[in-house]
């Protein structure tokens, strides 16, 4: 199984989530494609069995810019794919992830329940990321 984990992160919080997720996915023996949205190869991602994408809540409950650009580029290739969305936030209630889920569903993806962590993942958050990753496969 090939699993892509692509993320954007401005201060390292979503990156820390992505690293925990990567560790859990790699431990299952899956082939992992891992990297940032500004540097990711769209065709390698859309040819994956499972696509896990991370972005912090930015602007006013929107995706971080490089993830918005990358995601727009792969959106038409998500039909029939298993997709999981994650990210860090601060003061909101998760609207950016709910909107992103709707977009992915509209693109024809099967979307796992999203995972959000308040600011920096610490304590239980790390194991939550790892459990989420295994369920998302
Ligand atoms: C310009 C800017 C806009 C933000 N907008 C939101 C927002 O709309 N909702 C929210 O819950 N948090 C918002 N945040 C907080 C970030 O989502 C939060 O700091 C997050 O942990 C950043 O994750 P990162 O280190 O992966 O970039 C914003 C932060 C900045 C700097």
Number of domains: 1
Low-confidence stretches: none
CATH topology tier name: Rossmann fold
**What's the CATH superfamily, by name?**
Flavodoxin domain
Basic shape: globular
Summarize, please.
The protein is α/β, with parallel strands linked by helices and 137 residues long.
SSE order and pairing:
Blueprint: E1 2-7, H1 13-26, E2 31-36, H2 42-46, E3 50-54, H3 65-74, E4 82-89, H4 95-106, E5 110-111, E6 115-118, H5 124-136
Parallel strand pairs: 1-2, 1-3, 3-4, 4-5, 4-6
Helix pairs in contact: 1-5
What does this structure look like?
Strand 1, helix 1 (13-26) and strand 2 (31-36) form a beta-alpha-beta unit. With 137 residues, the chain is an alpha/beta fold. Strands 1, 2, 3, 4, 5 and 6 form a six-stranded parallel beta sheet that branches. The mean pLDDT is 98. Helix 1 packs across helix 5 (124-136). The protein has one domain: 3-Layer(aba) Sandwich (Rossmann fold), CATH 3.40.50.360. 39% of the residues lie in helices and 23% in strands. It contains five helices and six strands; from the N terminus they run E-H-E-H-E-H-E-H-E-E-H. Bound molecules: flavin mononucleotide.
Provide key terms for this protein.
single chain, alpha/beta, Rossmann fold, six-stranded parallel sheet, 6 strands, 39% helix, binds flavin mononucleotide
